[in-house]
Structure formats: structure tokens, C-alpha cells
TrEMBL record:
Keywords: DNA-binding, Transcription, Transcription regulation
Record-given protein name: GntR family transcriptional regulator
A Pfam family this chain is assigned to: UTRA
Any coiled-coil regions, as ranges: none
The organism's taxonomic lineage, starting at the top: Bacteria, Bacillati, Actinomycetota, Actinomycetes, Streptosporangiales
SUPFAM superfamilies given in the database record: Chorismate lyase-like, Winged helix' DNA-binding domain
InterPro entries attached to this UniProt entry: Bact_HTH_transcr_reg, Chorismate_lyase_/UTRA_dom_sf, Tscrpt_reg_HTH_GntR, UTRA, WH-like_DNA-bd_sf, WH_DNA-bd_sf
Domain HTH gntR-type stretches: 3-71
Listed PANTHER family: GNTR-FAMILY TRANSCRIPTIONAL REGULATOR, MANNOSYL-D-GLYCERATE TRANSPORT/METABOLISM SYSTEM REPRESSOR MNGR-RELATED
């Protein structure tokens, strides 16, 4: 089964851009010209351009045309290795920029658990959770959006009710849970990719639909999930690096 026409057109233009055949600043054919030359509809051309714009490959200049965009320099975030697990703010101490100063802002709230959060925490949909959202910056550039959720029935009314407040603020999920007698003994991660949501696009100053690297992390005490978190990083501006250690017996 062939890909839709807009996917085929986007792929052809993408290959030209990534190969260097279409250099930064190159003006792409106009929509009427592509409609005439390729025998496709204007909707197909618009959809292809929309996709390439979300990927950060082209830019539209009103009154002038559509151009190959200057590729931004990808900056590196290095993930901690050696099995170290922190967790407050979620993942962010695990990531350090290779240049620039990291900082974050956060906002806490309580409310009902969304479907995916309820699934990861093993709770009914709509159950009470404490949610903290973080926007992480390197210098003045927003680099990631992260959210963490903890079961309300576990942390409400305790000294660790909000990760960024109280005597145990910023001490990490494992240490905070230990305060209330919960021993985290396992951490599970998933990595995937998806388009940026409208809210993420605003917070990260990127086009809606930008491809995001998404990492989910869930902390477990025995069989109970006591916290879960998600971090989303725009792949058009950042790469995540991890150095893998070779066991001594294999060297």
C-alpha cells in the first residue's frame, strides 16, 4: 500500500533538504507550480508543507514564498549513567547540558488522574493525584517540559505532599517516599516519540506537531507504583546522549 500523496511529496522534499541538494535559503516551488508539475491538489501540497514546517525544515515567508530553513545547531543533553536514579524534578537532574546553565520553574496542582497516568499508577481513571509540571531551561531556552504524578491517597497530608515544598523539597522521589515509610525498589522507563501538543509548543516555543522525544519513568515499591513522570524534549533542537559503560570482565 502506497503512502498518501502528501507523505510522498514531503519525503521527496525532505530527502533533498537533508542531502544538501536543497540548501538553507533555497526557495521551494510555489504551491500552484507544484500542483501543476506534480498533478496533485493544493491540499496535498499544503499538507506536505505543514509536515516539513513542523519538522523545522522549511519556513513560510508571507508575500515571498517557502524556503528551506537554516538548520539549528543541535545542543546536547547528557543523561546520567551508572544506574543512578534521582527523580525530582523528574529526570532533570539526570540530564545536564554540555553548555549553558540549567534552571526550571514548576507549578503544582491536585486533580483527577488522566487515563494514561491512571494506567501507569494502577489507579482508577479520575482518582485523586498530585501533579507537578516543570519547564526546564538551559540559559533562557526552554529545553523540556516534564510532569510528575503521585497518588493523592499516598502523599496527601504528609510532609512530602508537594515535591517542591516543605522540608523535603528537591530531595528526589526515592528519598521523599522513604520519609513516609515507602521503600522504592524498582524504576521502569519507556522511551517513545510523538508530536508536540499545543500546550507544549507554546511552552517550548516550537511549532505544534514538532517531533518530541518522550520518556516515561515509573517508581515502584513492591508491586505498587508510587510515582510516574513524563518528560518531553523537542528533537529539532536537542539530542540526548548517554555513555554506556563496558563491564570490566568484557573489556
Amino acid at each position: 500500500m502506497e503512502d498518501p500523496l502528501y507523505v510522498q511529496l514531503a519525503q521527496e522534499l525532505r530527502e533533498g533538504i537533508l542531502s544538501g541538494q536543497l540548501a538553507p535559503g533555497h526557495k521551494l516551488p510555489s504551491r500552484p507550480q507544484l500542483v501543476r508539475d506534480r498533478g496533485v491538489s493544493s491540499n496535498v501540497v499544503n499538507a506536505a508543507f505543514d509536515q516539513l514546517e513542523r519538522e523545522g525544515l522549511i519556513e513560510r515567508r508571507p508575500g515571498s514564498g517557502t524556503y528551506v530553513k537554516e538548520r539549528p545547531r543541535l545542543r546536547r543533553l547528557v543523561r546520567a549513567s551508572g544506574g543512578r536514579v534521582y527523580g525530582a524534578p523528574p529526570f532533570l537532574p539526570d540530564l545536564r547540558p554540555t553548555d549553558g546553565k540549567a534552571s526550571f520553574r514548576c507549578m503544582g496542582e491536585t486533580g483527577p488522574a488522566p487515563v494514561i497516568v491512571a494506567e501507569r499508577l494502577g489507579m482508577p481513571v479520575g482518582a485523586d493525584v498530585v501533579r507537578i509540571e516543570y519547564v526546564w531551561y538551559v540559559d533562557s531556552e526552554a529545553a523540556a517540559v516534564a510532569s510528575s504524578w503521585e497518588p493523592g491517597d499516598l502523599v496527601r497530608g504528609t510532609p512530602i505532599a508537594f515535591p517542591e515544598e516543605g522540608p523535603h523539597a528537591l530531595s528526589g522521589v526515592v528519598a521523599r517516599m522513604h520519609v513516609i515509610g515507602v521503600q522504592v525498589d524498582r524504576v521502569v522507563e519507556w522511551e517513545t516519540a510523538r508530536p508536540a501538543t499545543a500546550d507544549e509548543a507554546v511552552k517550548l516555543a516550537c511549532p505544534e506537531g514538532t517531533l518530541m522525544l518522550v520518556i516515561w519513568r515509573t517508581y515502584l515499591a513492591g508491586e505498587r507504583a508510587v510515582a510516574t513522570a513524563e518528560i518531553a524534549i523537542p528533537t529539532t533542537r536537542w539530542v540526548v546522549e548517554r555513555e554506556l559503560q563496558i563491564p570490566e570482565e568484557s573489556a
